[in-house]
Write a structure and sequence with these properties.
The protein has 67 residues and is an all-alpha fold. It is built from four helices and no strands.
Length: 67
């Protein structure tokens, strides 16, 4: 098995995990050398299962706490 990690994989992981951690998207974008946040999010950010679960839990709290 080839365990080498390509540089672009690290960039994608960095962007995804940084945004997941709540770091301002402009900061993440700038640290990758991008001028547009939309480019960083569209190209480098990937949806993780934990993101979907978190979103569902937040919506559930809004729905059930408002009753």
């Amino acid at each position: 098995m080839n365990t080498r990690m390509h540089l672009y994989c690290l960039r994608h992981s960095y962007a995804t995990l940084s945004l997941l951690a709540g770091i301002d998207p402009k900061v993440v974008s700038g640290s990758l050398g991008h001028t547009r946040v939309s480019f960083t999010q569209d190209t480098y950010q990937h949806l993780l299962p934990v993101m979907s679960r978190d979103a569902a839990e937040r919506v559930g709290r809004v729905l059930f706490n408002s009753l």
